[in-house]
């Protein structure tokens, strides 16, 4: 038998696939339980916008027709939202696809990309897949104002003449930490002009801090800037896989060269357009998340568990022990959270902010597990 693994490109030979949060259906099937709740993948507990659901109904009869390969209507709406032209927008099958397109367009053997040690797991995966070098920078200390957050000086020190891409998650998953406008602007001004900086703003809509930047507004000043956003989080459309980037038109044109045709389906485009206009749903999602962050944070403090202060829709907390047994026992309680050892946080678990009832259920299940 031929061992095809040794015939794969070097980066793929050693690649370990991304492991998503356990689906509810899988858990219920494996354990024979019902009414499980998933707080593992940072999904919006309110679900999609009612406007998005209604809009999808209008295009179901056209599923035999290919979607608009250019995504004209959605790109125009996004361009209007961010004050750019449609030629600066690239639509993706989730913002993850944009990250992969960046790697395919600018990374290769002999080139490198820089990211933070505890940053989103997809960054090293897309870098390794194209056999480029991934450079993980050390993070801020646990007693910093942004514990385990991006250390921009450490990241700058990892940049050299072969660095083609720098990834900055703002806010970052799984730590929930963020970089202020002042610090990020100073960082961008010190990055070489020929090095692209991807600012991943997947959770941007949840952040209410006054010093948090909307870097889509910085693209005219930084031609090497690519900003990614997603409809999977605040807009509740994770199941449709829809994301986008804002960059200079020249950078977008290069991304478009490696983008697959019809990469964003018709349902996603239609739902995204409707969701973008539903500002009420977004505002309600922010409110529920704000209250949930306070609820879960207070609950963890009452139980003597340290956690990383978060501005996203999740909190990562420290069990101060290998968390696998706690994770497994929570599964048997019908509550799915997320181990984050693969992010370099071996004693932590991450919990998504749910509805008040879901948050109560998590805390009650955690009590039963800790007592056991």
Can you describe this structure?
- The strands form 3 sheets. Strands 2-8-7-6-5-3-4 form a 7-stranded mixed beta sheet, with helices on both faces. The chain has a 4-stranded antiparallel beta sheet with strand order 9-10-13-12, with helices on one face. The chain has a two-stranded parallel ribbon with strand order 1-11.
- Helix 5 (95-106) runs parallel beside helix 6 (122-129), helix 5 crosses helix 9 and helix 11 runs parallel beside helix 13.
- The model has no long low-confidence stretch (mean pLDDT 96).
- The protein folds into 2 domains: 14-43 and 280-371, Aspartate Aminotransferase, domain 1 (Alpha-Beta Complex); 50-278, 3-Layer(aba) Sandwich (Aspartate Aminotransferase, domain 2), CATH 3.40.640.10.
- The longest helix is centred in the last third of the chain and has 24 residues, at 279-302.
- With 372 residues, the chain is of the alpha/beta class.
- Helices cover 37% and strands 15% of the residues.
- The chain has 13 helices and 13 strands.
**What CATH architecture of the largest domain do you see?**
3-Layer(aba) Sandwich
Indicate the overall shape. Answer: globular
Content of β-strand: 5-15%
Instruction: Tell me the radius of gyration.
Output: 21 Å
Overall structural class, as computed from helix and strand content, comes to: alpha/beta
- Please give the number of β-strands: 13
In CATH, what is the class of the largest domain? Answer: Alpha Beta
Percentage of residues assigned to helices? 25-40%
Q: How many DSSP helices?
A: 13
Order of helices and strands, N to C?
HHEHHEHEHEHEHEEEHHHEEHEEEH
Unreliably modeled segments = none
Strand order of the largest sheet: 2-8-7-6-5-3-4
**CATH topology (fold) name of the largest domain:** Aspartate Aminotransferase, domain 2
**Count of distinct structural domains:** 2
CATH superfamily of the largest domain: Type I PLP-dependent aspartate aminotransferase-like (Major domain)
Mean pLDDT: 96
Main beta sheet:
7 strands, mixed
Distance between the termini: 49 Å
